[in-house]
Amino acid sequence: MPELPEVEVTRRGIEPHLVDRRIAAVTVREARLRRPVNDDLAARLQGQRIARLRRRGKYLLADLDQGQLLLHLGMSGHLRVVPQDTVAQRHDHVDLLLEDGNCLRFHDPRRFGLFLWGEDWASDPLLQGLGPEPLGSEFDADYLFARSRGHQQPIKSFLMDAHVVVGVGNIYANESLFRAGIDPRRAAGRIALPRFRRLHQAIVEILQEAITAGGTTLRDFTRPDGRKGYFRLSLAVYGREEEPCIRCGKALRAARIGGRSSFYCGHCQR
DNA sequence: CTACGTACCTGCCAGC
DNA sequence: TGCTGGCAGGTACGTA
């Protein structure tokens, strides 16, 4: 589900409910996530005030009086803010009950997500090697160009590598490459600087448009208030195999790149 | 080091 | 109808 836009939409949705609030109680119904939830999570969080909520790539970091909460939505996770008496559903793994009666509820059927307390995650291997933020100033065409020299890897796999740039997952890699007119199978190291300018611009535009639309809901994703994301209506290639290209009208193609479903126009993308 | 492939987990859908 | 295989928005690890 969640790539950068969905995580950012989630962050913006829950932030006003969390910042400057205290955690009154914690319920863990299922601790077996990608890494097990701290076995002393409740003790760690109880009574703590949440100072702020940040995003790093697809991770969310909540700064507490003591330590930090590190959250990740995996493939199928979402966070919602619900009234505390809301009945828990299947796969509602963790609740943070807030002092104002609201409840932050973590739901994740596939359990690839994370809900972890730690003293300081900044130097943890999970976050250490991450590439720049795609919407930040360190990410530009020159960076992509320099970083890709000598790489034979397909540009799509390269873009989806969080050590290159964070936040670009399968949907937005497909969409960005379509907008930039680049064949997703092309070796990253064989793309010239002017084309990286187009690609950089496409990535930034698409991520921003997706955030504005509330993200992309294919199935699981819901925003913290329960609404869906509408960027799905703007997808040009993802999931549209055999449908006409919006630019040239030729049938879009599907391929397997780096083990992931990929969609592109064989005419518009070179 | 790079570039794959595979595993983790549940739900859903097409096809038999 | 009911089963089975394949696939799904992410990431980490093992292998050449």
Short overview:
This protein has 270 residues and is α+β, with helices and mostly antiparallel strands. The chain has helices at 4-18, 41-45, 125-128, 141-148, 155-159, 170-180, 193-212, and strands at residues 23-28, 50-56, 59-64, 68-72, 78-83, 92-98, 102-107, 114-118, 253-257, 260-264.
Describe this structure in words.
There is one protein chain. The chain has 270 residues and is α+β, with helices and mostly antiparallel strands. The chain has 2 domains: 4-128, Alpha-Beta Barrel (N-terminal domain of MutM-like DNA repair proteins), CATH 3.20.190.10; 141-264, Helicase, Ruva Protein, domain 3 (Orthogonal Bundle). It has 7 helices and 10 strands. The protein has helices at residues 4-18, 41-45, 125-128, 141-148, 155-159, 170-180, 193-212; strands at residues 23-28, 50-56, 59-64, 68-72, 78-83, 92-98, 102-107, 114-118, 253-257, 260-264. The structure holds a DNA duplex (16 and 16 nucleotides).
